[in-house]
Amino acid sequence: MKNKKVFLLLLSILSGLLLTLAWPEKGFPGLLFVGLVPLLYLDDYISRHRDRFVKFSLLFYSYPAFFTWNLLTTWWIYNSTIAGAIMAIVLNSLFLAIVFQVFSWAKKRLPSKFAGYLALISFWISFEYLHLNWILTWPWLTLGNGFASYYNWVQWYEFTGVFGGTLWVLVGNILVFEGFRVSGFRFQVSGLTLPNSPSHSFAISPFRYFTISPFHHFTISPFHHFTISPFRYFAILFLWIGLPIAGSYIIYNNYSEKPDPVNFVVVQPNVDPYSEQYSLPPDQVVDRIMALAGPMLDSTTNFLVAPESAIQERMWENDMTSFQSLSLLRTVVSQYPHLNILIGGSTYYEYTPGEPVSRTARKFTKSAGFYDIYNTAILINSADSFQLYHKSKLTPGVEAIPSFHGFKWLENFAIDLGGTVGSLGTDNYRKVYSTEKSVPVSPIICYESVFGEFYAEFVKNGAEVMIIITNDGWWGNTPGHRQHFSFVHLRAIETRRSIARSANTGISAFIDQRGDAFDVTDYWVPAVFKGSLNANREHTFYVKHGDYIARIAVLLTAMLLLISLVLPIFARNKIAK
Asked: What are phi and psi of 350, to 5 degrees?
């Protein structure tokens, strides 16, 4: 038995390795379709030998898979903080293991294997959706993100978003696992056989059953029988995986942008976030940006874009006209009256007496007032006032610390990136900037580019081109900043919006409406580039409807959990009678 349990743990680690080898930016996403198969074997074996295992055994045996996956794909967090990296990897692995354990628990109580697999799909997608929308949000490992480097496979994300990719992967794993069973596959090591039998049954309703093996009939109704061979079964699997890819290439090759050029100059100033960003005088920061951008500007330039947190002057929103950085940039605008400058900075807002105070507000140490701090994108043009957008999807552990009762201890693990630590203020509305002699645009700040539906709301509100500003230098020259960049391909496809991306320390680029990137900069190199992107006014199905797949999954989760709780009670009552 000891050898069997060791083998189960090795199967779990194999699952983690497969998922890792599938992940951007250098992985092959085809492995996603088999990455969960070892875990399905684990669940199958534990379910058939319950007398040999304690409760929650699947939680224990699946945890190494998710820990391996999280560790090998997000280890780079440690560059910012070792404690924060440990918290992120340990907790995210635990959350996924809990999802798999709850699936196994529900599967035992549901009336059919089909319902059990439906539970796996709905529970997993519901968790991914939760992980997009609570304060400890970490959607980095959403399964649908795994195609970010192979975005030509998922041009249909304009209809489904990344949850379509998650659904695709989960069903694919189920089909692969069941395909092995159809072919009579047996895996035996030291007396361990997986699965126990080459034949099995699916019950879709009280009146419909499937019996599948190389030699058994496939029954869809009491009146129709036909035999399905392993070859035919794997043909179904091939179509499930292959048809979406083929359709995606058809969409990609036939997609054509309507000409509506917007002219950009994008700057990558390469300010070291550890040694320079919070110590350089504001005028030197602006000088560094303009030394790169100045020669590129002319009367046709619509936008000059500089990265997140470029300005670290202590700017109070109650009076934005008095700060040196902004005054210097307004001088540039005076030379090019049609120019719009978008740049990131830290801003503060002091609440007036009697004004409602936000949950994130901080109290002045030497007075009775309150104030908020924001990670802000600032638009500067010839208009009298500045247009401000406050980052609203905050990085957990850096900009968002749980403040409700019982979670205050998490502040001890806050990741100090050299700037403001603790919860920042946010905006409740997805803002679209009114621009000077150009199209409406919206800013996305750093981590926000990982959130598909959130991102699409800016487009829904009228943005015709998107601008991403970020500061990825915290993670060093690791997969972290490259993974982050790869996700922009998916955002462009989901919304069919061109993107200008300015990173403080790489990667900066233009991304067109098909997701293709060009003028891509190198990491840790000062850079500037100039070019045009086409605006677009049309809304994709995904922009109109958002994460509808996830919301359906949440509804199914509630129903299946209720059924899982109620059916055993009915069964016991029936036996008692």
From this structure: -95, 125
Residue 411 CB contacts under 8 Å (≥ 6 apart), including other chains: 401, 422
Third-level CATH fold of 261-545: Nitrilase/N-carbamoyl-D-aminoacid amidohydrolase (3.60.110)
b (16+ CB within 10 A) / e for 242-275: eebbeebeebbeeeeeeeeebbbbbbbbbbebee
pLDDT at 281 over 70: yes
**Residue from 261, 150, 231 nearest 493 by CA:** 150
In angstroms, how far is CA 563 from the centroid of its own chain? Answer: 30
* Domain residue ranges of the chain, discontinuous segments joined by +: 2-254+548-576, 261-545
pTM of this structure: 0.89
pLDDT in tens, 316-348: 999 998 899 999 999 999 999 999 999 999 999
User: 316 φ, ψ to 5°?
Assistant: -95, 125
For the chain, helix (H) and strand (E) counts, in that order, are 14, 19
The torsion defined by the Cα of 413, 417, 418 and 419, in degrees rounded to 10, comes to: -90
Q: How far is CA 129 from the centre of its chain?
A: 10
What is the pLDDT of the chain when averaged over all its residues? 87
* Lookup result for tokens 């999280």: 70
Residue 384: CA atoms inside 13 Å, Cβ hemisphere, count?
1
Can you say whether the dihedral through the CA atoms of 82, 394, 458, 473 is positive or negative?
A: negative
Residues 462 and 486 sit within 8 Å (Cβ to Cβ): no
Rounded CA separation 67/64 (Å)? 5
